[in-house]
Fold:
Amino acid sequence: GAGVSQSPSNKVTEKGKDVELRCDPISGHTALYWYRQSLGQGLEFLIYFQGNSAPDKSGLPSDRFSAERTGGSVSTLTIQRTQQEDSAVYLCASSPRGWQPQHFGDGTRLSIL
Amino acid sequence: GNSVTQMEGPVTLSEEAFLTINCTYTATGYPSLFWYVQYPGEGLQLLLKATKADDKGSNKGFEATYRKETTSFHLEKGSVQVSDSAVYFCALSAQKLVFGQGTRLTINP
Structure:
């Protein structure tokens, strides 16, 4: 498809396990964002990639969270030693340039037991 | 730093009522302003945008005007429908997007 694709759509895992969430942005989009949306809450910015520049990691809540973007395309968000408070919907978005409107994926719903 | 403040929800209206969701921002420079909508069970979608002062963005009967003097971008619709029930996010863009906390809107028939 032509949109932002995220996988898996749902992930249930036990506390303490590591998880990887994947985002395939729209082809040609240089900007890629990760957000977290907890139940009933707004969007919490996590990390922002723009082209080959160093990513803006200012939103990552702890050192258990990391993300990478390989070849300027696909991105993976990794959460190590998951905690129950990590349960949320993780959204990925991309845009042609950082300041342009973002296109969002449908998100990955993460549940930590 | 840049920030966006939205009217707290939830907001509940009857069908055909007039809607206003307030949004104010703080930013250096001249950001672009956006409204995004998230329908139940779906991802976020761009609803409308305005890129400079006095611009009016419009889509699906919704409108918002970029007011630099009041640093506002309030969302309005003259006659809401049940299908407008969703969460609405105001956002500004200055190198990266900054979102408000979202306003949950419920329209009753």
In short: Chain A touches chain B through 22 residues (CB under 8 Å). The radius of gyration of chain A is 13 Å. The beta strands of chain A are 5-7, 10-13, 19-24, 31-37, 43-50, 65-69, 75-79, 88-95, 103-104, 108-112.
